[in-house]
Amino acid sequence: xxxxxxxxxxxxxxxxxxxxxxxxxxxxxxxxxxxxxxxxxxxxxxxxxxxxxxxxxxxxxxxxxxxxxxxxxxxxxxxxxxxxxxxxxxxxxxxxxxxxxxxxxxxxxxxxxxxxxxxxxxxxxxxxxxxxxxxxxxxxxxxxxxxxxxxxxxxxxxxxxxxxxxxxxxxxxxxxxxxxxxxxxxxxxxxxxxxxxxxxxxxxxxxxxxxxxxxxxxxxxxxxxxxx
Length: 228
Prior knowledge:
Helix content is 49%, strand content 6%. It has helices spanning 10-22, 43-46, 68-77, 89-117, 136-158, 171-185, 195-205, 220-225, and strands spanning 2-5, 29-32, 56-58, 64-66.
């Protein structure tokens, strides 16, 4: 298998944690995509994923899987022992419900804030182009505020249970962990009084599959070149 991603981005971190958790790192060839050069927007990449986003997993027979959730489902079920996406209908429902809440309430608004409320990766690399939209920066900054306002919800969930979708580490925890790391890296404030979230982050950080695999949410050279 080949994984097209950019090490250090939130979605790359998500899939690399999954690979580590499943013991599949040695079965994957990592292909780095130059996001700053907009390699993900070029015809060769768009032929794999017309949305123009990483990561993309290409199987040995050429079948292409995009979207982090879909890639996680595939990898987690390869051995018939899904430890991250749920074993029972109830577990699967809880994990996918919380996964989508994390995406909608945190990851997506943080991403919008980064690309529109800050210089992001530069004007030409925004997720979509709206040249006649004069309030894009204001909207992006509001999205950042929304993300910060939503974080206490997850703290509340974690006051009731060990992990975000129940009593077991799951795909939803991986997405929340990457989202919170992304928010912190781009300067969004996380209230220190959210102690359940803080304890959860410490526990997740110490897991063998997570330790040393997220790094900075963006590589330093990306940050230096982001306004190019």
